[in-house]
From TrEMBL, chains A, B:
Keywords: Kinase, Transferase
GO molecular function: thiamine-phosphate kinase activity
InterPro entries: PurM-like_C_dom, PurM-like_C_sf, PurM-like_N, PurM-like_N_sf, ThiL-like
Name used for this protein in its record: Thiamine-monophosphate kinase
PurM-like N-terminal domain span: 31-142
Top EC class of this enzyme: transferase
GO biological process, one term: thiamine biosynthetic process
EC numbers on record: 2.7.4.16
Domain PurM-like C-terminal, residue spans: 156-295
Length: 311, 311
């Protein structure tokens, strides 16, 4: 008997990945934000995310509209991280006995509002019973071949950039857990960087979204690109509101930024000489891709560790 | 406050369907076994099904391998019902604290064995924590344009046929629930009719798979095709082993056939003059498509009602 925490989410994923037979038409399978399939001048992007009550949302804090909204947003973020755009959506939902029709209708409204904002169409799904409220979303998107950005596209010497401030989602979660007032809006109702991803895609090399915290995402880029990274701690963007939450809870907001996740910002790498091409997106440079090793430095270099652990 | 059972699974689906904006490229959205998208000479088929512990499998009865196997099979059955074949698969799984690594590995083995048998490739997914074991599978398949079979393709005068005996899954479930020995193999380890669906597709009109029982499936065909149906009760195929389970439990096996579901046989309609074209598939004629009304007859005509209700 082996505890799952010994193997971890990524150990499980590696285990299934090694036994899969690849077929013609597959450009990228397990190991990026989306799977990528050949489709003429485009690539088809496929992503799926499951949200379980108590783990990915809390029915005491999130309104049903927010649960529906979030379920779509977290999936669009994966499409944004590949440089693409979403087209079609499949919704599976398991409903426990204690939700009524109006509650479910509000979940659907949240999904439909997110779908409308980001121009995707819900075309199928599965509505069933379960002892827990569970939502699974699958998105199908497209990307022009020249715009595809993968985790494995980072190159030595690239700057590591992020698209906005980090730690905000986990700050809100920890405030809600502690029953304190503060900056909880983003945690309850996150948004994603689809439009920005589209603008960045023609110029950047590696790209990933912040699901599990900056440390985890930079490590994914390093794993897939076969490179190293040096993150400069004092450049990691944390907003005043997130710092304020840190004070209220006596917690270090840097931990939220590196290991919290669900900020749905984009982390991307770009050659220094190309930085002016994306000036209008206001990129925040937080470090550099190196030949090997993964470090975070504040004068003193330490291993870049952390990231949200599901198990 | 409205109880979901008042609206039902299909009421919920209708409610979301009416608010969806259709986009170019969509051939069929909500309301069939799969969503259908344009793709050159082919249609792309998309289907998703969620399996929740306690509702769709029972960890006391199903081995982890069987849970993984079933999760893939139920989805392939939806592709088979459109006349297509599966190509790609996304797996989401929520794992509770009380499953260990070996258990999860056996679930994956069941998924991989089903994937190998039916030549599909797992290319992505989501592995997360949840207080219940939940699996969501999304399949992407293809069908040649001329082979697409929809629920709405039945025509007045068509014969209604099924591909094999019904009620077998629910017989097994009721035996397991009662703690009795008997024909439980199919319930625990169902299979689907992919190869048969491919052979039928060029010849039949409407087609659907048996997820919720024959009564429910024939009603879906009538709804989507704008026709009626008359099912002859004594032609509904029920095996000796299923009848035996009925005797053990003092239950009417016809109820299992009409309202049980999960038999994953195909229900299809075909003009009488074309029946000899599919002779080698040994179709079982159970009724006829009529202009209106949905009936089951055993000499006396009664309304064709029933079907598994999730709520």
């Amino acid at each position: 008997m082996t505890d799952i925490s010994e193997v971890g989410e990524f150990g499980l994923i590696d285990r299934i990945a090694e036994r899969i037979k690849e077929k013609e038409g597959l450009v990228k399978g397990i190991g990026d934000d989306c799977a990528v399939l050949e489709d003429g001048d485009y690539y088809t992007l496929l992503t799926t995310d499951m949200l379980v009550s108590g783990d990915h949302f809390n029915r005491n804090w999130h309104s049903p509209w927010q649960i529906g909204w979030k379920s779509i947003i977290v999936n669009i973020s994966d499409i944004a991280a590949m440089g693409g755009y979403p087209e079609w959506c499949l919704v599976s939902i398991a409903l426990p006995d204690d939700v009524d029709y109006e509650y479910v209708d509000d979940i659907f409204k949240g999904m439909l509002d997110a779908s409308e904002k980001y121009e995707l169409s819900i075309i199928g799904g599965d509505t069933t019973h379960g002892d827990l409220l569970v939502i699974n979303i699958t998105l199908i998107g497209d990307v022009e071949k020249e715009n595809l950005c993968m985790r494995g596209d980072a190159e030595v010497g690239d700057l590591i950039c992020v698209s906005g401030d980090l730690g905000k989602s986990w700050a809100g979660l920890d405030l809600l857990r502690a029953g304190k007032e503060g900056y909880t809006e983003f945690h309850l109702q996150p948004d994603c960087r689809l439009e920005l991803g589209r603008r960045l895609a023609p110029h950047v090399n590696g790209m990933i979204d912040v699901s599990d915290g900056l440390a985890s995402e930079v490590n994914h880029i390093c794993d897939e690109s076969g490179v190293g990274a040096l993150v400069e701690k004092d450049k990691v963007p944390i907003s005043d509101r997130t710092r304020e939450a840190g004070k209220i809870l006596d917690k270090d907001p840097m931990f939220w930024a590196l290991s919290g996740g669900e900020d749905f910002e984009l982390v991307f790498t770009i050659p220094e000489e190309d930085l002016d091409r994306i000036e209008d997106t206001e990129p925040i440079v937080v470090g550099k891709i190196t030949e090997e090793g993964r470090y975070i430095s504040n004068g003193e270099k330490k291993p870049l560790e952390g990231g949200y652990k599901h198990f």
